[in-house]
Design brief:
Blueprint: E1 3-5, H1 49-54, H2 66-77, E2 81-82, H3 87-95, H4 97-105, E3 109-114, E4 119-124, E5 137-139, H5 142-157, E6 164-166, H6 167-173, H7 192-206, E7 209-211, E8 217-220, H8 223-226, H9 230-247
Antiparallel strand pairs: 1-5, 2-4, 3-4, 6-8, 7-8
Helix pairs in contact: 2-3, 2-4, 5-7, 5-9
Organism: Myceligenerans salitolerans
Pfam family, one: DUF4194
Biased composition (Low complexity): 30-43
Length: 248
């Protein structure tokens, strides 16, 4: 796994497996372009009453109603839209899904909607020929990768349930990877625990972990389930098993 792909341009958000990080990897890889046009864009050819009604301020060139614009803003801001966190905006997404999908396509973006988990997020429209990379990618270190694979496995083991994790417990579980992480100037060595804690904070910032209560307890974002298809899930499980064997 090499990058953490954000669900909003220039912001923090959700992850996607690319290829495993390497021991001692600092994560300094090229990132995708961060710029993106603002939602709304140029006015369409509609000039009738509906377009006029959609105007929210003097000179507003937009044509979408306010509810659809709020959905767009939430998706682009990221990291994801969840009915559990904002049921009103989720309902507006379902109502205006076609319009929202069309406007995102204007920006080379696609929206993924998981009706079972009631979660939605944006990603690059990878099926579009010669599409530019719009969603910003945050480079991952080897320990970011190990932690992310562990959290994904915890979700797979608890389908449909909320998964709460504690940093100290996770560090203890991942000690099997200490040797693989290296030692000395090129690795983590005795700084392994610090490296895992840093990776933890990066995932909190990216929206994969959400802090709950005192201490370092977090809920694992269920969006991590949605990010992978069946083939990718098998690949994640196989990769995690391989890293576990090599770390021992």
């Amino acid at each position: 796994m090499e990058h953490l792909s954000t669900s909003r341009p220039g912001g923090s958000g959700t992850a996607r497996v690319v290829r495993p990080g390497r021991p001692g990897d600092t994560g300094q890889h090229p990132t995708a372009p961060e710029g993106v046009p603002a939602p709304g864009g140029p006015a369409s050819s509609d000039t009738g009453t509906e377009a006029a009604t959609a105007r929210l301020w003097p000179g507003d060139p937009g044509t979408l109603p306010a509810a659809a614009r709020r959905v767009l803003a939430s998706l682009v801001r990221g990291p994801y839209l969840s009915a559990a966190d904002d049921d009103e905006t989720w309902a507006e997404l379902l109502t205006h899904l076609d319009a929202v999908r069309g406007r995102l396509a204007d920006m080379y973006l696609d929206v993924v909607v998981d009706h079972d988990e009631q979660i939605a997020f944006v990603r690059d429209a990878t099926s579009a020929p010669d599409a530019p990379a719009v969603v910003r990618e945050v480079p991952l270190t080897f320990l970011d990768t190990v932690l992310l694979l562990h959290l994904r496995t915890r979700l797979l083991e608890s389908p449909g349930q909320e998964v709460v994790v504690e940093l100290d417990d996770v560090v203890d579980h991942l000690h099997a990877f200490r040797r693989r992480s290296g030692s000395g100037a090129s690795g983590y060595g005795t700084g392994f625990d610090v490296g895992i804690a840093t990776a933890w904070d990066r995932l909190v910032e990216a929206g994969i972990l959400r802090a709950v209560g005192p201490g370092r307890r977090c809920v694992v974002a269920p969006v991590l389930r949605t990010l992978f298809g069946a083939d990718e899930i098998q690949a994640v499980q196989a990769e995690y098993a391989r890293l576990s064997r090599e770390g021992l």
